Amino acid sequence: MSELDPSTEAWLNLALDHALAGLHHNGGLAPEAGAMLRQSVRRLERYPAGALVNASTRKPEVKWIVTGWASEMRILPDSRRQICSFLIPGDVFTARPANSSSCGVVALTRMDCADVERTLDGSPEPIRPAVWEAVARSLSLMLERRYEHITRLGQLGAAERLVHLLLELRERLETVGLAAPDKFRLPLTQEHLADALGLSIVHVNRTLRHLRAQRLLEVKFGGVALLQPARLADIAGRFDEPV
After folding, report:
1. What is the DSSP string of 187-225?
2. What is the CATH number of the domain that holds 128?
3. For residue 207, is pLDDT > 90?
């Protein structure tokens, strides 16, 4: 964990704009409480890509993502892995003590997080209940997304799964100001997509090429362009889901 340098203030304020939008959308945090929470963020925990995010104590800790992407995953004894969800700025998650579970949160890019409890220790007393309530609602929404992911894996075909996931990510990123209606940055590899969707890398690559050939979407240079959003929504068979 590092003390924030005053020279990073402009960067931090922009990052917090996105992260607070996530707490507002996912958890219903009021703007007034968000403004006070912004002033309370004095330290961030930085994780490099590939790092497993463990609690620093013997009890679970709630983290709030300010920048970067992560995933919740389970790694099997033979090193295969299942990605259960993707986490973006504004999301919260529970970090568990090291070696306490076969599931964990792994940073997919460089990631900066605020520890919620330690951040609130230096915050005005009146906002603490509101922030914890927003955190609880956000964690509940994450659980709903996991159910949606199970439905995606069990009921949709390969192209449907892939398009459904990409549309979900676009909507979530748009709510925090990190996507346009028809394009967004995607710092995921085809291996990440395969591990999330229960497909082989070859199958993911083939499906992406098929969708590109139909002029429906393009995925390249770390970004996604949705060329025909309405048709993509039809392909995904979008069912009601939490964004």
Report:
1. ---HHHHHHHHT--HHHHHHHHHHHHHTTSEEEETTEEE
2. 2.60.120.10
3. yes
Give the span between the Cα atoms of 64 and 113, in whole angstroms. 5
| Amino acid (one-letter) located at 19 | A
Q: Which tokens is 140 given?
A: 């509940």
What CA–CA distance (Å, rounded) separates 57 from 43?
Answer: 17
| 33/64 same-domain check | yes
| Residue 97 sits in the same domain as residue 133 | yes
Question: Helix (H, G, I), strand (E, B), or coil: what is residue 117?
Answer: helix
Give the residue numbers spanning the domain of 215: 158-236
What are 148-192's pLDDT values in tens digits? 999 999 999 999 999 999 999 999 999 999 999 999 999 999 999
Amino acid present at 56: S
pTM of the model: 0.92
Question: Above pLDDT 90, what percent of the chain?
Answer: 83
